[in-house]
Design brief:
Elements lengths: L1 H9 L1 H19 L2 H51 L2 E3 L5 E5 L4 E13 L5 E7 L11 E4 L2 E9 L3 E9 L3 E5 L6 E5 L7 E8 L9 E4 L11 E11 L3 E8 L8 E7 L2 H13 L3
Antiparallel strand pairs: 1-2, 2-3, 3-4, 3-14, 4-7, 5-6, 5-14, 6-7, 8-9, 8-11, 9-10, 10-13, 11-12, 12-13
Length: 278
């Protein structure tokens, strides 16, 4: 009680001022239509601004669910498109062909749960594994461009070696000239890589596309890797070309894993050929 009295005594002038201010505001806005309208307008404007801020936050939080739903729908539509062009070879065997890219197989959607881009040997983890039909040596794409290769799987997750890994080399070519080489990352920046072994007489122009050659049993032909920027170095017989990667590795959220049909059959033939020393 004594503390309350001391408080009132100490701040009595402030309290009186606040009381008179409240009475004055009540009289001003309570009996004057113009001031009351202005006050109501200002209050509604601030309420609208606060609601807009909360709406932005709510929409941002909802983007995660929206992206997941759109990704699922995208892959369902893509697989449905492929199924519409199934070619029947016999009554018991059917082949499924993606007529857009001229490749056989199916697409599997996966969400990235872990990613690195600042190391020399970068990997990322995707939410999808053996239960989803994902196995090692499957190619991984982001928005239709090369992102990496599956190297290990568990039941629900898979590890992917990123194109941003100095140990990874991908067979590539320039569609305009048809000349093949190999793409590797030099560890400098996540936006560019190097295209090696391009003959001197080939003169690619900035902006020319670089795609997978299809010579390996992992990537089918024609998957986008990047675009020519400039000739980086010149050797005795071949040029090395700096390319701008088509995949934005810093912003990857969802990827596509491509399950190539007949891959095991091709692998077995390659193994037989290697064992025979060919």
């Amino acid at each position: 009680m004594h503390s309350l009295l001391r408080f009132l005594s100490r701040y009595k002038h402030v309290l009186v001022f606040l009381l008179l201010l409240a009475v004055g505001l009540y009289l001003l806005y309570g009996y004057n239509t113009y001031q009351r309208a202005q006050a109501g307008y200002a209050l509604r404007r601030y309420e609208a601004a606060i609601e807009a801020k909360f709406r932005v936050i709510s929409d941002y939080i909802g983007l995660v669910e929206t992206n997941e739903r759109l990704a699922d729908e995208n892959f369902q539509l893509r697989n449905e498109l492929a199924k519409r062009y199934m070619l029947r070879r016999s009554d018991s065997v059917q082949q499924m062909r993606d007529t857009v890219y001229n490749r056989w197989g199916e697409y599997i959607s996966a969400r990235i749960v872990s990613n690195s881009i600042a190391k020399q040997h970068n990997f990322f983890i995707i939410e999808g594994g053996e239960l989803n039909g994902i196995t090692p040596q499957m190619p991984v794409y982001s928005n239709g461009a090369v992102a990496g290769i599956v190297v290990a799987t568990s039941k629900r997750y898979a590890e992917v070696v990123s194109l941003l890994n100095t140990d990874l080399k991908i067979s590539a070519l320039l569609p305009k000239s048809g000349d093949a080489g190999s793409v590797s990352w030099d560890g400098k920046t996540y936006t560019t890589a190097l295209l090696h072994d391009i003959p001197h007489h080939v003169s690619p122009q900035p902006g020319d596309s670089v795609v997978t050659s299809g010579y390996s049993n992992i990537f089918p032909y024609g998957m986008l890797i990047g675009y020519v920027e400039k000739v980086e170095t010149t050797g005795a017989d071949f040029n090395t070309i700096r390319i701008r990667l088509a995949t934005n590795f810093n912003r990857m959220r969802y990827v596509t894993v491509f399950n190539k049909a007949f891959r095991q059959e091709i692998d077995s033939l390659i193994s037989v050929s290697e064992s025979n020393g060919r």
